[in-house]
């Protein structure tokens, strides 16, 4: 049957749109290549380090957008070898494959389907790096990605990389980048590093301060801070890959952040740029602290909207108080921090972890690296913020007792989370006791203290007063 004029116009429009998008992508890539001094015939080498959910999705998004321009860019991802896929996960993986005709056909074309049949039957052991090549992240089995170029040798992955994406948990960042630094000793050019990690450590000597993943990378490798950036936002990895509308900020030196924001931006993933790297990075770690408590409250109160709102009022007032300690202009952080907190409370792994602890389906003895979820970074963040804000050298004036106290004394939720998760003095149910304490301040009082007293401590982020 002959095509109608309307159908022909649709085809022309569709083809024209695809050509326009492809041309736009190539232009963005060319601009970044020029900025990085890449010669004709020398591809831009982008390497993801770490293959958790967000790290894998980030690499897959780049592959989807730019992978067809193989003469201009090479995208690969490193993950450790040897991690096996248990039979229950293999069975789940098989069901996911057979529920998606496009994935099934792709695996058959690549002669990769049979191994998943054998793994389901228990006749074969699959490995995490093996399934990642086919587009399956072990921490996110239900969301198939595009096939990825996977490298299990760290030196091979990073030695000539132009851009490195840090997809590691903050607790692993220092160790891996110290190893990477050994392979960069002979480098002539300095790479650009984008960190996705949302976690912090406390450094108490010679004076109390927060140490962030970008600072860990700087110390481990000697790469200057102007070449290290942080990207974060209110995002759930699987939803972003499924093209739910999302936004993020890339923070760091102007030389790189504006070009990278443009390069990373997609119709469904808007990337803004900001110069305040460390503060945004710290805020990304702070919300994970309170997300765990939110999950506990939700489980213990049978998802009571009233109880969750009471907790939200208290935890946000503590976060606001802490931002006044950390930031010179804390008001600018209110929107990004609350947005990131909101999405984490709704669907993040830290809130999920709190729920599972409260229900008794997980225990603290199982550690904070959880099968199918990856690293629960809020646990180490609770320890870091508690230890940091417990230092008497950072004292603020107590509103009623009229004496100096460590800032943590004005953060009862943080104190209780520390006693539940770190010292293990109390069970998860104790979080409700903290909320129901009649001596607890009205949340507005804590915010008022922050707004009416000069409590900013620039040294906490490594700045000189």
Automatic annotation (TrEMBL):
Q: Check the UniProt entry and state the signal peptide residues, or none.
A: none
PANTHER family per the UniProt record, alphabetical: GLYCEROL-3-PHOSPHATE DEHYDROGENASE (PTHR11728), GLYCEROL-3-PHOSPHATE DEHYDROGENASE [NAD(+)] (PTHR11728:SF33)
Q: What class of enzyme is it?
A: oxidoreductase
Per the record, its GO cellular-component terms are: cytosol
Q: What InterPro entries is this protein classified in?
A: 6-PGluconate_DH-like_C_sf, 6PGD_dom2, G3P_DH_NAD-dep, G3P_DH_NAD-dep_C, G3P_DH_NAD-dep_N, NAD(P)-bd_dom_sf
Domain Glycerol-3-phosphate dehydrogenase NAD-dependent N-terminal, chain residue ranges per copy: 148-248
Q: Name the major location.
A: cytoplasm
Q: Which reaction is catalysed here?
A: sn-glycerol 3-phosphate + NAD(+) = dihydroxyacetone phosphate + NADH + H(+)
A GO BP entry: carbohydrate metabolic process
Q: Does the keyword Amino-acid biosynthesis apply?
A: no
Where it sits in the cell: the answer is: Cytoplasm
Keyword Cytoplasm on entry: yes
Q: What is this protein called?
A: Glycerol-3-phosphate dehydrogenase [NAD(+)]
Q: Which family does it belong to?
A: Belongs to the NAD-dependent glycerol-3-phosphate dehydrogenase family.
User: Which GO molecular function annotations are given, in alphabetical order?
Assistant: glycerol-3-phosphate dehydrogenase (NAD+) activity; NAD binding
The EC number on file is: 1.1.1.8
The UniProt keywords, alphabetically, are:
Cytoplasm, NAD, Oxidoreductase
Please list the residue ranges annotated as the Glycerol-3-phosphate dehydrogenase NAD-dependent C-terminal domain: 276-428
Family annotation (SUPFAM superfamilies): 6-phosphogluconate dehydrogenase C-terminal domain-like (SSF48179), NAD(P)-binding Rossmann-fold domains (SSF51735)
């Amino acid at each position: 049957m002959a095509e109608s004029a309307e159908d022909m116009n649709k085809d022309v429009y569709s083809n024209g749109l695809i050509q326009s998008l492809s041309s736009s992508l190539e232009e963005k890539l060319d601009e970044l290549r020029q900025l990085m001094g890449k010669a004709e015939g020398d591809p831009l080498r982008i390497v993801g380090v770490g293959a958790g959910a967000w790290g894998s999705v980030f690499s897959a998004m780049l592959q989807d957008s730019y992978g067809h321009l193989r003469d201009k860019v090479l995208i690969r991802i490193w993950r450790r070898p040897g991690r096996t896929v248990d039979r229950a996960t293999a069975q789940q993986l098989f069901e996911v494959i057979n529920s998606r005709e496009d994935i099934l056909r792709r695996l058959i074309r690549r002669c990769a389907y049979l191994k998943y049949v054998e793994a389901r039957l228990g006749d074969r052991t699959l490995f995490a790096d093996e399934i990642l090549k086919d587009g399956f992240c072990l921490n996110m089995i239900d969301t198939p990605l595009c096939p990825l170029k996977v490298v299990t040798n760290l030196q091979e992955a990073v030695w000539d990389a132009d851009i490195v994406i840090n997809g590691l948990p903050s607790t692993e960042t220092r160790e891996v980048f110290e190893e990477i630094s050994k392979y960069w000793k002979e480098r002539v050019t300095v790479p650009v590093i984008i960190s996705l990690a949302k976690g912090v450590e406390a450094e108490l000597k010679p004076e109390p301060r927060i140490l962030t993943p970008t600072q860990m990378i700087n110390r481990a490798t000697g790469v200057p801070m102007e070449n290290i950036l942080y990207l974060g936002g209110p995002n759930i990895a699987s939803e972003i890959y499924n093209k739910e509308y999302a936004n993020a900020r890339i923070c760091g030196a102007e030389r790189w952040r504006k070009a990278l924001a443009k390069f990373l931006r997609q119709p469904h993933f808007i990337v803004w740029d900001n110069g305040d790297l460390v503060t945004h990075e710290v805020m990304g770690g702070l919300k994970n602290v309170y997300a765990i408590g939110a999950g506990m409250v939700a489980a213990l109160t049978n998802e009571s909207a009233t109880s969750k709102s009471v907790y939200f009022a208290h935890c946000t007032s503590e976060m606001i108080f802490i931002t006044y300690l950390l930031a010179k202009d804390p008001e600018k952080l209110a929107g990004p921090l609350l947005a990131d907190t909101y999405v984490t409370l709704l669907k993040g792994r830290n809130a999920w972890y709190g729920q599972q602890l409260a229900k008794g389906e997980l225990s603290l003895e199982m550690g904070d690296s959880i099968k199918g979820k990856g690293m629960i970074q809020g646990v180490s963040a609770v320890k870091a913020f508690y230890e940091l804000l417990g230092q008497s050298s950072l004292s603020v004036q107590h509103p009623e007792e009229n004496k100096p106290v460590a800032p943590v004394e004005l953060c009862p939720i943080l104190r209780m989370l520390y006693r539940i998760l770190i010292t293990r003095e109390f069970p998860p149910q104790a979080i409700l006791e903290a909320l129901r304490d009649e001596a607890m301040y009205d949340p507005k009082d804590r915010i008022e203290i922050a707004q009416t007293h000069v409590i900013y401590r620039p040294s906490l982020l490594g700045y000189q007063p």
